[in-house]
Amino acid sequence: MCNQFYIMRFLKAQIVCLFVFLLFSCSNQPNQKNDSEIYNGKLIRADSITKFDTSKLNRILNEELQEFLNGSTFAFTEVKGKYQSPTSAVTLYRLTYQSSIPEKDNKPAITTGLIAIPSQLALGNPMISYQHGTVFGKTEVPTFIEESMETKLAVAQFGGTGYIVIAPDYHGLGSSKEKNSYLIQKSSEQACLDLYKAAQEFIKKKNIAVGHFFTFGWSQGAYNTLTYLRRLEQTGIPVRASATAATPSDVNYFISQSILNPRPEDPDWSPACFSNLLFAFETYYNLDGLTSKAIRPEFLQAGKEFYEHKIEFKEFFKRTAPTLKSYLTPTFINEIQLGSNPLCKVLTASEGYRWKSVTPLRSYYGERDEAIPVDLAQLAIHYQTLLGKKDGELFNAGKNADHRGTYAYALYHVKPWFDSFLNQ
């Protein structure tokens, strides 16, 4: 009996210990994920890239911009002399920082982004986050500045006139070891938000005071700017004003229209964009078999190599097809029309405009934009207006404004608008 008594006491004690252990483990399990998230935005290192003096910045806004617009329906004369002249040299740094991939259960990711610091610093320099558009090369991003003309333009116009400029590379581009996160909503906005945090840490170490914060983006970057703006508002980070140019705010609309109702002006690089989207969505959303079902078999390998940055666009174009109809399988096109492919549900959930923004917002569109139809480019502001937003505005870059022209117009037009908030 004595032995049985002690055995029972021992077993009860073990049961109590096991219960406490399980209770502690369960109560702390959610915190483990939250604990990993607190490292998001942690600055790992900062490397000096280069310094642009005012003569270089002026060349960017003149000779280099003219070259950027070569072949565009939007002539350089439309914007010549309209940009604010740079008055400050700018020093550029590559920030390497901790981020995560929400679509992969917040898997840790090391990401890179640009910060450009003007030499003329005052108490409370404004800061702008610029989100770049679609690129096909892994290093055609802000931290490889000479390969990113659009970012150079943003740095010249804003950094050269006293703004601190930050610009994310996004997951999978630049020095990132991840897969290309092309139009992946949560991962893209996470990369943007975490660069903002890393930049704040870097600026604090430099003893630089920051004033108002703005956001701006073009094309893919316009979409990312909208989803990022929503995240900033949800997080409670104030944005003084925001602007987008050539904005594909509804990814489902963007993709379905391109497939089912192509326009004569649609660019021959549309299959390259959509191919990268298919591989990115298959990778990030675990849509197994998506690419093999959607892409014609004879083009699948070229599409995979292009997505993985093993071949350049010229090789992809040479080995594939110039239209989406000839690049995609008839079965997949039919499923998009019926809305029955699993991709359709993910595309619908990837919208970037269905909330009522509290931030003053402008959106620019061009009447000859070969990439973004006018109706799509106007959609976000129309939706915001329907919800009662009073400070959402649309601006037409003109009847000759194609995709690049829309950006060139928006860049000079939005600058004085942002400036008007600086003393408020």
Classify the beta-strand content into a percent band.
Answer: 15-25%
Strand order of the largest sheet: 1-2-3-5-4-6-7-8-9
State the order of secondary-structure elements, H for helix, E for strand.
HEHEEEHEHEHEHHHHHHHHEHEH
Strand tally? 9
What would you say this structure looks like, in words?
- It is built from 15 helices and 9 strands.
- The protein has 424 residues and is of the alpha/beta class.
- A 9-stranded mixed sheet has the order 1-2-3-5-4-6-7-8-9, with helices on both faces.
Would you kindly provide a brief summary of this structure?
This protein has 424 residues and is an alpha/beta fold.
What's the structural blueprint in terms of helices and strands?
Layout: H1 2-37, E1 43-52, H2 54-68, E2 90-101, E3 107-118, E4 125-131, H3 149-158, E5 164-168, H4 185-205, E6 210-218, H5 220-235, E7 241-245, H6 251-260, H7 270-284, H8 290-294, H9 297-307, H10 313-319, H11 324-327, H12 330-338, H13 342-349, E8 361-365, H14 374-386, E9 392-396, H15 403-419
Parallel strand pairs: 4-5, 4-6, 6-7, 7-8, 8-9
Antiparallel strand pairs: 1-2, 2-3, 3-5
Helix pairs in contact: 2-3, 3-15, 4-5, 7-9, 9-10
